[in-house]
Amino acid sequence: MATIVTFGEIMLRLSTPGFQRFVQARQFDVAYGGGEANVAISLANYGHDARFVTRLPDHAVGQSALNHLRGHGVDTRFVARGGERLGIYFLETGASQRASTVIYDRAESAVATMPPDAVDWDATLDGADWFHWTGITAALGETARQSLGAALAAAKAAGATVSCDLNFRKKLWTTDEAQAAMRPLMEHVDVCIANEEDADKCLGMHASETNVEGAELDEAGYARLAERLRDTFDFQAVAITLRESHSASDNGWSAMLLGGAGSAAPLAAARRSRVYGVRLVDRVGGGDSFAAGLVHGLLTKADAGEALEFAVAASALKQTIPGDLNLTSAAEVEKLATGSGSGRVER
């Protein structure tokens, strides 16, 4: 299996029990999660050497987050300690026509204030086959972007393939701020992962004739978007996740892939995956599970189309699991990707 490094923030997740609203809740369910941490845990679960890099405050809550990572098999040797606080996010899970809501409390968190020299990036990336990051890390501020720049330089020196999930978050920065930061960083990226909003807000490229909220997708328009992204930024591969939002409880879920990386033979034309009808339990982390599945697939499959199907199946399964994490094995994902999604009881 491969050595994969991810860099970003892990946060304390406080969610209302069941489908309660914030104003109803008298207690919160505790978990930990964050884009790149979720990816690392999935990849460790698939058998890879997954290293997660962040900075955690040197107190009991920071230690709890570290223990969480270690408990899922993630290599935490390169986690720095310091800073004053762990970022927090509050989650109210929606249902039917009521959307889920996230409130961030992460300003001046340990990773947002982490200087680039807090980590020995050359040692961290030594022997790495792959490096993964998201636009969320870039959105945390100039200091975080400096650390990200150091990580990307070390990844290039190590000869690692670099993937980026654009992950635009309007509660963290504006469209202008995102494009000013993200477009120059694309020169370091080999595999770009996006949805229609990410591509528009982070890179200024729009998928035409699409109405996600109306569950209408123009497949040809997304194929053209993938081609424009590839040609503009010289990506080896472009993956676009496609969510048809029928309601907060029921979504159509698929993705499109153009090109390839790793051991997977590239797709010369953009291809759409199988479409899954998902009854959502928890969609948070769905994109992270897709990214992890795609990285795994591109590193282990002979064909990029097989990698795409693995990634979509992985993320469909994750959205049926409470919490940020995709707690499924590679064998379970393979079974769905190559077989039935009927959900019959296994006896």
Shape: globular
Low-confidence stretches: none
Listing every helix as H and every strand as E from the N terminus to the C terminus, the arrangement reads EEEHEEHEEEHEHHEHEHHEEEEHHH
- Output the number of helix runs: 11
Biggest sheet character: 9 strands, mixed
Structural class: alpha/beta
Rg measurement, Å: 19 Å
Alpha-carbon distance between the two ends: 31 Å
Oligomer: single chain
How would you state the average pLDDT, rounded? 94
Report the count of strand segments.
15
Beta-strand fraction estimate: 15-25%
Give the % helix: 25-40%
State the main characteristics.
single chain; 347 residues; alpha/beta; 4-stranded mixed beta sheet; 22% strand; globular
What does the model show?
With 347 residues, the chain is α/β, with parallel strands linked by helices. Helices cover 35% and strands 22% of the residues. It is built from eleven helices and 15 strands. The protein has helices spanning 35-45, 60-71, 121-125, 135-138, 142-158, 175-185, 196-203, 219-233, 286-300, 304-318, 330-338, and strands at 3-7, 11-15, 29-33, 49-53, 55-56, 80-81, 88-92, 101-105, 130-134, 161-165, 191-194, 237-245, 250-259, 267-272, 276-279. The strands form three sheets. Strands 1, 4, 9, 10, 11, 12, 13, 14 and 15 form a nine-stranded mixed sheet that branches. Helix 1 packs across helix 9 (286-300) and helix 10 packs across helix 11. The longest helix has 17 residues, at 142-158. The mean pLDDT is 94.
